[in-house]
């Protein structure tokens, strides 16, 4: 049986994700098992997820995934490089999937692999070490890339992430074999979130089986966690902020200097966004400070994962996984007692992310912390 991994956020699960499942099984066979490695309570945009992780994972299994494991914080809220490296490190240690499927705007594995080779070349890395302090890292990196390779680095979001997946595989010395497909314009997570937050009907944006899971759940409101982050920026000395992930390169100073000019976190980020700092980078830095994520955390490898949801095929995969890998797969909080000291430190970061999501949703943390994985009796149970 083929086993394909998908690195995802499902923030929330929408009809484009269902199309990916259909593409995988059309190309690799109907019996192909799909293992989703999904972001937990915080996501790469640098904010809490729109819904808690367990219902998002349940929606994926009801729509055809076989097993959903967690990509925990801090990697779930890292930039593209840290997100990809954390996810591929985890997949390689699990040794479960033989292929990795991801969508891309260009749809060409050859072009994406060439870009991954380019950003790993010594000439490119050496040039990056001479960064222009007046430019953002992303802008300077693109200038260097154009100068060395005669073309721009991919700019479409899924192409950028795809290149980082391939670069991570090279850096790790292997892993699941990648294949990509061209993503056509259509359903997006951002458009689906916007409809949810506006209280508008989602129509066919969300598959029926997923909509049934989300029915009755309110989308996460950013006001509460944003207020906490803004207070933290205002009240923490710049030197202390600089110890957190993403706060390097003058970010801490910029946020600190403008913090009293803004009444909301989004307002502060707007004041600091410009040629040097992108809004997503600033959001991730603020979130990292709020979660206490140290600067080196995004460069480490995950030492555990958690089960979020499974179907019958997924349960079989999980049983085999626990026999043949030393990587802990947690099902409940009590399992964390067996973690090493370093893994436990990572796990506590994930728990802080869960508590932050609860704060953002105006809920008691115990409602999320005590949830258990969704287990389906049949494949694609609706």
Question: How does the overall form come out from the CA principal axes?
Answer: globular
Supply the CATH architecture of the largest domain.
3-Layer(aba) Sandwich
Structural class: alpha/beta
**Tally of individual domains:** 2
Report the portion of residues in β strands: 5-15%
N-to-C span: 24 Å
Mean pLDDT: 93
Write the layout of secondary structure elements.
Layout: E1 3-8, H1 15-28, E2 33-39, E3 42-43, E4 47-48, H2 53-62, E5 67-71, H3 80-94, E6 99-104, H4 109-119, H5 122-128, H6 137-149, H7 157-172, E7 177-182, H8 189-197, H9 208-214, H10 223-235, H11 238-241, H12 251-258, H13 265-272, H14 279-291, E8 305-310, H15 312-324, E9 329-330, H16 341-361, H17 365-369, E10 374-375
Parallel strand pairs: 1-2, 1-6, 2-5, 6-7, 8-9, 8-10
Antiparallel strand pairs: 3-4, 5-8
Helix pairs in contact: 2-9, 3-7, 4-7, 5-6, 10-14, 10-16
In short:
The chain has 382 residues and is α/β, with parallel strands linked by helices. The protein contains 17 helices and 10 strands.
């Amino acid at each position: 049986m083929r086993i394909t991994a998908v690195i995802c956020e499902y923030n929330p699960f929408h009809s484009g994700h269902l199309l990916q499942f259909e593409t995988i099984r059309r190309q690799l066979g109907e019996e192909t098992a799909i293992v989703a490695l999904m972001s937990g309570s915080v996501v790469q945009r640098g904010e809490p997820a729109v819904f808690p992780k367990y219902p998002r994972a349940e929606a994926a299994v009801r729509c055809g995934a076989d097993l959903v494991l967690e990509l925990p914080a801090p990697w779930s809220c890292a930039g593209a490089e840290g997100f990809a490296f954390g996810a591929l490190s985890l997949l390689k240690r699990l040794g479960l999937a033989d292929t990795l499927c991801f969508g891309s705007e260009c749809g060409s594995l050859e072009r994406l692999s060439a870009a991954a080779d380019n950003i790993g070349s010594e000439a490119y890395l050496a040039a990056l070490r001479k960064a222009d302090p007046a430019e953002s890292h992303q802008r300077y990196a693109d200038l260097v890339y154009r100068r060395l390779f005669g073309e721009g680095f991919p700019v479409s979001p899924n192409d950028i992430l795809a290149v980082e997946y391939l670069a991570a595989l090279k850096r790790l010395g292997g892993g699941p074999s990648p294949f990509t497909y061209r993503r056509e314009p259509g359903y997006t997570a951002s458009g689906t979130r916007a409809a949810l937050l506006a209280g508008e009907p989602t129509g066919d944006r969300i598959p029926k089986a997923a909509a049934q899971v989300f029915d009755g759940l309110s989308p996460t409101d950013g006001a509460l966690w944003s207020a906490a982050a803004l207070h933290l920026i205002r009240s923490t000395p710049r030197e202390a902020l600089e110890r957190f992930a993403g706060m390097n390169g003058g970010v801490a100073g910029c946020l600190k200097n403008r913090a009293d000019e803004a009444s909301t976190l989004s307002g502060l980020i707007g004041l600091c966004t410009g040629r040097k700092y992108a809004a997503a980078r600033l959001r991730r830095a603020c979130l990292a400070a709020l979660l206490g994520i140290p600067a080196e955390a995004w460069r480490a490898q995950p030492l555990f994962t958690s089960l979020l949801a499974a179907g019958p095929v997924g349960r079989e995969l999980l049983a085999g996984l626990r026999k043949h890998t030393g990587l802990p797969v947690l099902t409940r909080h009590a399992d964390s007692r067996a973690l090493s000291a370093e893994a436990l430190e990572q796990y506590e970061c994930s728990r802080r992310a869960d508590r932050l999501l609860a704060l953002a949703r105006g809920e008691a943390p115990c409602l999320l912390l005590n949830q258990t994985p969704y287990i389906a009796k049949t494949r694609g149970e609706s």
